Amino acid sequence: MKKIYIFTLLLFLFACGKGRDIVKQQSAKTSISGDPYTVAMEYATAFEVSGFTSEKDYNEALSGLDDVLSKDKTNADAWFNMGRILFYKKEISKAKDALNKAITNRGNFAEAYSLLTKIYLFEGNISGAQALAEQANEIVPDNNILMNNLAILYIKSGKLDSAKKIAEKIVRKNTKFTPAYTTLGNIYYLSGKYEMARFIYLKAIDEEDNSGEIYTNLGIIADKLDDRNSALGLLTKAVEKSPGNAYVHNNLGEYYLLAGDYDSSIKEFNDALKINPRMIEALVNLAIAYTHVKLFNEAEDNYKKALTYDPSFPEAYFNYGVFLSDHREQNEEALEYFNKFIVLKGKEISDKHRVYRYIEQVNQKKKEKARDKEAEQ
Fold this sequence. Notes:
By secondary structure, this protein is mostly helical. It has helices at about 35-50, 55-70, 75-90, 90-105, 110-120, 125-140, 145-155, 160-175, 180-190, 195-205, 210-225, 230-240, 245-260, 260-275, 280-290, 295-310, 315-330, 330-345, 355-375. The protein is globular and about 80 Å long.
């Protein structure tokens, strides 16, 4: 399941009323004073620094922004930042309402369009996200961030040619906007043109993008090209460069998992889940790793979490089905999960996929169990 890191939609994290300067990060313990908007933004920053866990900072930030908006309901920046922290708190409906009000009060608010598009994507509404991104590009033309967002959405909906045209346009216009290089590299990767993808990622590094996301993508390409030693070095470097990115930990974990280094893989998957506890790929991978070291209860807990968090993730059904058949002797349940996997994957899999071999094995186990039962009688 190792996959390239497709940049999430870009946005400016803060939009402040006075010059829209970025508020400096501080701990929640710092004494906060100043005008109501600045105070609210400092609490919002403290909430983010806490990993979105500080209820005090969250409530203070919302209260402060409410106070600002009670005096001026046209303050687009306040509406935007309210939407931002509501989104981090997973108050999705309220976040969308706040961001729409930000756009209503500032029609060309690129940051608000970007975050609202990201929320649609978070909800799994790719068509809605794409429609909004297209609208944003019409209203705010030639904005590199909004253009790159649209290219990413075209990738997600399989429109690689359209995505490629946009990414190439950005690169021609601004050679320093490295997210567009990543987008273009991803397009080549998904088209099976691995050497070209590697070339584009290296161009991003030439333009001084030394992020872990670039190195994890290069590591995956090295792995695809059977250069295992280089792959390990690149994937490890990715973690060193971006230790706060769940995907780089997951990709390194998958390398270790396939290499049979289960202890190292478990560490990386757990590191990914510390950053993003709802990361489905890491949950399933951790369950697989736990199974290899015979921690079956822990494995099953992670499969159940994955299916709870995302009931539409096919690999969770397939791997859990294998687990139930091999380690729980729950063959009927295993067949249900295999069939669900087939439905979710649809035409993406052929009749030679190994799920059909597992189904045959499970059916054979059922027959043998029935024969044994008859013999006992």
